[in-house]
Design goal:
2 copies of one chain form a homodimer. Chain A is α/β, with parallel strands linked by helices. Helices cover 41% and strands 17% of the residues of chain A. The structure holds a DNA duplex.
Chain lengths: 236, 236
DNA sequence: CGGTGTGAAAGTTTTCACAGCG
DNA sequence: CGCTGTGAAAACTTTCACACCG
């Protein structure tokens, strides 16, 4: 591969092109999170093996993952944290801020309106919507709950590109349809249902009960293994 | 493989043994969720290709995934939804109910106390803890917030095996240490930090900002691809 | 020396394709 | 016939191991 880099890469060098495996992108977010913590604690550089150890990955994996996007390291030194953070944010798209539209202002929605973690990664819930007349007009965490009929206009007005669905499961598809009609490009769905969406709309599902279920499996199967359950033949 | 099954499998036939890929287990949860929806709408049987189509997987993948755990289908017919649901819950460990201890009763924690989705999958938040004297003693969604010093005793008393961390990021590790000391076997962590845990404690992390970040990447890179960004060579 | 970047090898997961069954 | 269960092939991901660099 053509190369004679000495200075840090520009973000414009990023591929963004060939399909990077999803699992690599999810580790990228973990690298970024850890790097931000390291910088906050004063660390300037880090090696792939240090970073990997902190997260439970191998050094080779860290290097390969980063290698999908460019060359960020300095042989003999490692990675400069601040540079790598900037590069990762370029890759992930969070060097600019994102306005998000929230649909559903129930318990969970209201809690998410106050969640500080979004802002730290450059996401702002710029508007929130509900159909319940008892909620519309209320101001929560500085955001006035609007009627969902105002969604399309507000999305346009505020340059909103991402939506978040926090309605009860039986109204989730309708909320999704509304967000799509309003022109949103991606949706995070907290309702426990698989949405039907056009292919051009990106989609991330978060099912809180499923997370517990995965834990249940892990605990249960670890137990079975410890009990010496041998190979899984069906017959005696 | 030895086999002459005609009747549905008993759950005791489950392997629980060889390492089933994590990604398979996560799809299991999606299958289960979809099956529950189907049963609720009156459907009795389903084929692997129908189920796959609903979730965006291939028929072969559905069959292979289920094949890790046993034989559940009827050739020419498909799977009987109620049977398959029971089998999946056996596998995932949710045919019995789980008591969960929540640490942190802030905005998000309080919202999760009221989340109906947990109960539907057989999880109950049986106790909630905080250090804030202004919160301890309050009753939220029928749960009295206890001081965290009562954690170990309550875990024992109520047979709690799973913990949920919903404290601010800087207190997450301490919360984890407390849960581990109390004897919990698995932890769902909503704080944006990688916990250091003993190997025998299972661990699922949910970082809400990272979910948005993944969406940001998907939207950004889809855009780049549409713009015809070619292969990612660094040099002109 | 301590570290990256990267081909090649090993390992894992998905897809294919088809025998077999009710 | 319609569909499962499953080996075998293909595709993908991770690990290894080493040239190269400051």
């Amino acid at each position: 591969m053509t190369d004679q880099r000495t200075q840090p890469l520009q973000s414009s060098d990023l591929p963004s092109d060939a399909s990077v495996p999803k699992v690599v992108v999810s580790r990228l977010s973990l690298y970024l999170r850890e790097l931000q913590r390291l910088v906050a604690s004063g660390q300037q550089t880090i090696s792939s093996s240090q970073l990997g150890t902190l997260l439970g990955f191998s050094d080779a994996q860290v290097r390969k993952d980063l290698g999908f996007f460019g060359q960020f390291g300095y042989p003999g030194v490692g990675y400069r944290c601040d540079e790598l953070i900037r590069a990762m944010r370029d890759i992930l798209g969070t060097n600019h801020s994102w306005n998000v539209a929230m649909v559903g202002a129930g318990n969970l929605g209201q809690a998410l309106l106050g969640y500080r973690g979004f802002g730290r990664q450059n996401f702002a819930i710029a508007a929130a919507f509900d159909t319940d007349p008892a909620k519309v007009g209320n101001v929560i965490q500085g955001i006035r709950i609007q009627h969902i009929d105002e969604l399309a206009a507000t999305v346009r007005e505020k340059g909103i590109r991402l939506g978040m669905i926090v309605v009860p499961v039986e109204r989730a598809q309708e909320a999704a349809d509304r967000l799509v009609a309003a022109g949103v490009e991606g949706i995070v769905n907290f309702a426990p249902v698989t949405l039907v969406l056009p292919a051009h709309v990106q989609n991330v599902g978060v099912d809180l009960a499923i997370e517990l279920e995965q834990l249940s499996f892990a605990v249960t199967s670890k137990l079975a293994r410890a009990a010496g359950e041998p190979a899984g033949a069906v017959e005696p």
